[in-house]
Every structure is written in structure tokens, then in C-alpha cells.
Design goal:
Elements: H1 10-36, H2 42-61, H3 64-67, H4 69-89, H5 97-107, H6 110-132, H7 137-222, H8 227-253, H9 265-279, E1 283-289, H10 297-318, E2 322-329, E3 333-340, H11 361-371, E4 375-380, E5 386-393
Parallel strand pairs: 1-2
Antiparallel strand pairs: 2-3, 3-5, 4-5
Helix pairs in contact: 1-2, 2-4, 4-5, 4-6, 5-6, 5-7, 6-7, 7-8, 7-10, 7-11, 9-10, 10-11
Length: 406
């Protein structure tokens, strides 16, 4: 069928009922005129009208008519045959051709429908001329004009329906695409937040616990020979635990690091170096070059976390005796250089991150730097120490879209 889908629409149901009423009304008109006008063969007219009405009524009841063009064609042929019998009996049957046009145009393919409409219009003209015993061009105006109107109405309705269906599919595709995009953005946001939380935990809580562990081990070793040194290590471990607890609370509250509250980045880095020198057997020195300029919070947090992680790596892995931390302000970027005299390593042979052994530090540093459109370089070799450099632009997208940090 041409338009199986419109059968489900309220508009089409209303049009179908109008068509049914039109057919019934035209057949009733033919019967009424045959009875009141006492036309010849009135009985045949009544029988043909009833037969045509019953055949027509069978169409909406039979499900195959709406599912198969073959069944629809057979039903239309039966209705058309009954109509031809009626047309042979009375000229009033000419008007029934008009609803037949709509049925043919709806149920048949475009080519078959046009052919059926043309045949029906020709039969209507011929039947009416036969009853008038003459032919004139005026007799063809009604059936031809009715056929043209039917074709225009049905094809126009079908075109509107196709356009409506096309828009509906576009809306459904757009809705599905927006839903997929929202799901993808949500997933990306979750992954990004998970990565950010992993970096924050590594650079704060994990490093703090590592420092506490080292201090307690030192206290354990010093306790038999020098209890006073052990007590000092325990006190430093306690202070580290206090700092770690503050970090955890700030981390939960999603605020900036407490070491940056009420102070500058340079002061925070200097205090970090002093604390590291006090707690461990190394000397960490801080240097400031250039004119300090206000930095976005994301820049300050990233530089502080990277310094914390680098110092922890130097203490835990490099066994360095001295570390130089330099914060440099330039016109269009800020640079952080961290150099130690530890064992060094081969940057090309880094082990994969492991929850037990660690290895997340350099990955987190690089991720932080890249998130701010910066660059991180590492120069190291076994036995020659390590030099780490971070450069962050002062006009990156982080100025307008700062990363949320605890």
C-alpha cells in the first residue's frame, strides 16, 4: 500500500470515516432517486446499490486489504464491478466515482492508481453519456475535474505525511544523538574527574603517608642508640600526619591546598623545601627569579603538587642529598625547575604504574602540565641526578576555565 503508516493517525481515521459516509450517502442517493422517481429497473438499482455497499463495507473489515496491494487490488476490482453494474442501471452512480478515486490513489501504487483513476473517469463519462444517449465535452468536466482534485488531495496529503515522517525521524535521530552526546560527555567527565582525583590523592595523601612511613622507619632505627633522635622523628611524623589530615579535609571540602591559603606560591614552595629538609636527610633550597605575577589558582595548585611529588620522589627513590627548586617568572610563562643529585634513572625505561610499587608520579605531573597547555621535560641518567622542568603559559585556556582542585 502507498500509505500504510497513515492508517494509524487520527487525521487519516477522520478522512476514512468521511469517505465511508460519502460512499453510503451517494449509494443512498441513487436508491432514493430510483424509488422516488419510479425509474425503470428500480429493483436492479436497489440490488446493485446494496451489493456495492456490502462489497465496499467488507474492505475495512478485511485485514488483508490494508496489508497487501494484491488484496487491495482485488477488493477494488470487486467494488468497481459492482459500481459498473450500478452505473449501467442509473446515471446517479456517476458520483460514486469520486470516492473511488480516493480509494484507488490510496491503496494502489502511483502508476496503478493513475491508471485505475483514468479508467474509472472514462467509465463514468461513458456511462453518463450512454444514459443521455449523446456526448458533449461538458459531460467530461465533472469526472475529470473530480479525478484531478482527488489526485491533488491524496498526493498532497502523502507528500505532507512523508515530510512529517522525515522531520519526525530527524527529531528522533537528533534526540538520540543528544542523548549519546550527553552520555559520552558524562563518561568523559567521570573519567577526567577520576583521573584528577587520582592525581590529587597521589600528590597529597599518598606522598604524606610515604613521608610518615619514612620518618617512623628512621625513628625505629634511631630508637636503640639515640632515643632523642627517635623522638624528633616521631614528632615530625606526627606533624606530617597533621598536615596530611588537613590536606584530606580540604580535599573532601574541594578547596585549594591549605599550603596556599593566605600566602603566595613562592612562600608555599619555600616552606615545602624547609619542611622537607627538616624531615629528611637532605638539603632542599628554594630560589625565586623574575618579578612574581598573579597566577591562576590552577597554575599554583599544579606547580605546588608537582613540587610535592618531585621532592617525594627524590627522597624515596633517588636518595638525593640536595635539591634545588627554582620558580621563575617570565613575560608570557612561568617555569619551575627541580634538580637533585640523586641516583638518576633512564626516562625511557620507566616502569608501568603499579598500585603497590607506585610509579604514578611522573604520569600525574605530565597530565597536570598538559591540562594547562604546558610542557614538562625530564633530564636524567643513572648516577647523574635528575632535572625536571615545567613551563606553563600565562594565557592558556586555564585562565578562563580553571580546573577544580581540592
Amino acid at each position: 500500500m502507498n500509505s500504510a503508516a497513515p492508517l494509524l493517525t487520527p487525521t487519516f481515521r477522520a478522512l476514512a470515516w468521511c469517505l465511508h459516509l460519502l460512499v453510503i450517502g451517494l449509494l443512498a442517493l441513487a436508491v432514493g432517486r430510483a424509488v422516488t422517481s419510479e425509474r425503470p429497473h428500480a429493483g436492479w438499482i436497489i440490488v446493485a446499490s446494496v451489493l456495492c455497499g456490502l462489497t465496499y463495507a467488507a474492505g475495512p473489515v478485511l485485514p488483508g486489504v490494508h496489508r497487501s496491494r494484491r488484496a487491495a487490488a482485488l477488493w477494488l476490482a470487486a467494488v468497481g464491478a459492482c459500481w459498473l453494474v450500478l452505473l449501467a442501471s442509473t446515471p446517479d452512480a456517476v458520483w460514486v466515482a469520486f470516492p473511488l478515486y480516493f480509494l484507488q490513489l490510496h491503496l494502489l501504487s502511483h502508476r496503478a492508481a493513475l491508471a485505475a483513476v483514468a479508467v474509472t473517469a472514462g467509465a463514468a463519462i461513458a456511462g453518463f453519456a450512454a444514459h443521455q444517449h449523446s456526448f458533449s465535452p461538458a459531460m467530461a468536466i465533472g469526472p475529470v475535474l473530480g479525478a484531478a482534485v482527488a489526485v491533488a488531495v491524496v498526493w498532497g496529503y502523502q507528500a505532507l505525511y512523508r515530510e512529517s515522517e522525515h522531520r519526525r525521524r530527524l527529531i528522533e535521530e537528533l534526540t538520540a544523538t543528544r542523548a549519546d552526546l550527553a552520555a559520552a560527555q558524562h563518561t568523559a567527565g567521570v573519567l577526567a574527574e577520576r583521573d584528577r582525583l587520582a592525581r590529587e590523592i597521589h600528590d597529597t595523601l599518598a606522598q604524606g603517608f610515604s613521608s610518615i612511613q619514612l620518618l617512623l622507619r628512621a625513628a625505629e632505627r634511631a630508637f636503640p642508640q639515640a632515643p632523642q633522635n627517635a623522638a624528633r622523628y616521631v614528632d615530625q611524623a606526627r606533624q606530617a600526619a597533621v598536615d596530611n589530615l588537613a590536606e584530606a579535609r580540604r580535599f573532601i571540602a574541594a578547596l585549594i591546598p591549605p599550603t596556599l591559603e593566605g600566602t603566595t606560591l613562592a612562600d608555599a614552595l619555600k616552606r615545602l623545601c624547609t619542611t622537607t629538609s627538616t624531615r629528611h636527610r637532605l638539603i632542599a633550597r628554594f630560589h625565586l627569579t623574575g618579578d612574581p605575577a598573579p597566577l591562576p589558582t590552577a597554575h599554583e595548585v599544579a606547580l605546588l603538587r608537582i613540587t610535592q611529588s618531585a621532592l617525594a620522589n627524590s627522597v624515596r627513590h633517588a636518595e638525593a642529598t640536595s635539591i634545588e627548586v627554582t620558580l621563575s617568572y617570565f613575560g608570557d610563562h612561568v617555569a619551575l625547575d627541580i634538580v637533585d643529585d640523586g641516583h638518576g634513572f633512564d626516562p625511557t625505561l620507566l616502569p608501568a604504574p603499579d598500585p603497590e610499587a607506585g610509579g604514578f608520579g611522573l604520569v600525574a605531573m605530565r597530565a597536570r602540565t598538559q591540562s594547562l597547555s604546558g610542557a614538562l621535560t625530564i633530564e636524567s641518567a643513572p648516577g647523574h641526578g635528575t632535572a625536571l622542568t615545567v613551563r606553563l603559559p600565562l594565557t592558556s585556556r586555564a585562565d578562563t576555565e580553571p580546573e577544580t582542585h581540592p
